[in-house]
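Appendix B. Raw example, untouched.
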Amino acid sequence: MLAPDRSPDVIEAEKMVLETVRQLVAEKVAPRAAAIDASGEYPRDLRDLFAKNDLLGIPFPEEYGGLGSFLTYVKVVEEVAKACATSALIIAVQELGALPIMIAGSPEQKKHYLPKLATGELMTSYALTESTSGSDAANMRTTAVRDGDHYVLNGTKVFITNVAVADLCIVFASTDPSLGPKGVSAFVCHTDDPGFKLGKVEHKMGIRGSPTNEVVLDGCRIPADRLLGSEGEGFRIAMATLDKSRPGVAAQALGIAQGALDFAASYLQERIAFGKPLAKQQGLQWMIADMDCETQAARLLLYEAATRCDLGTDDVTYWGALCKLKCGDVAMRVTTDAVQLLGGYGYMTEYPVERMMRDAKITQIYEGTQQIQRIVIARKTLGK
């Protein structure tokens, strides 16, 4: 494992940030989690709380108002997700939508957008997926045509997280369909641009307080200086973004797993059956041991991937896939076992583990399905 190249100042800053986050989660986030899930409403109060406490820009470079620590960022997402996966997604999607600007933005674009994204003055989103190009991201139909000093975008994106509450949306569109993935370009759209419209609202199994929409680009006309990088670089930008956004999803999954494990362990200690606490039953102890072991293993893998993102190693694609695969699968297994450990109560909305199980499932799907992660990992392992 690599040792993080971290200064004492960064380590101390992380300690202070995590202490703050744990207090906010206990006092503000956890009490709201069930209501957010039940109502399906976006928790603007928590978004504002995160912005006020400088949690939205943690992975941003220091020169733009961030802490510059990816490892701290995943730990923050993990802490919030222990109580509420929806709320953790506010922080994770801000990183996702900012990454293309960090990766490919011009100095002027970075200076204009990143400080406002770091403070939460602007909120962002990320539009890659289409109905015919989910895992096959290069097979997109959305187009962008140059018209003087503007581009005109047409097409439909699907399953776009938090775009309904965002000011910006990073949109990927083909500027030359004949080139396939080499013809894809990336653009910064403002959600109030003419021709940028919200389509269908999706109703989901989990993360219900995070709005998910279609985006309809109907002659959406934007200034040409909103192109990120050069024409044809969009697919590379999208893939480089996913390399560093997958650990954020992994952190969300890990937090969900730890939250479910903590609740199940507490329940077993309190619930009496056959004249003794369930925690005294050896079979249930073994379940808890397996859940704990898998969660700890996932954490080590995630922190290693985050460290490599901070160090800028050339294998972040591989490590991003590893941690996303492991943490997503662990989240699903641990939450399912937590429901089982609570018996009938685990199936009831009165207890949080059924919500955690529903929330966990999406971590095996978005930012690249688990099958895609296995392809990425196998190619690296087999040397292809």
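End of appendix B.
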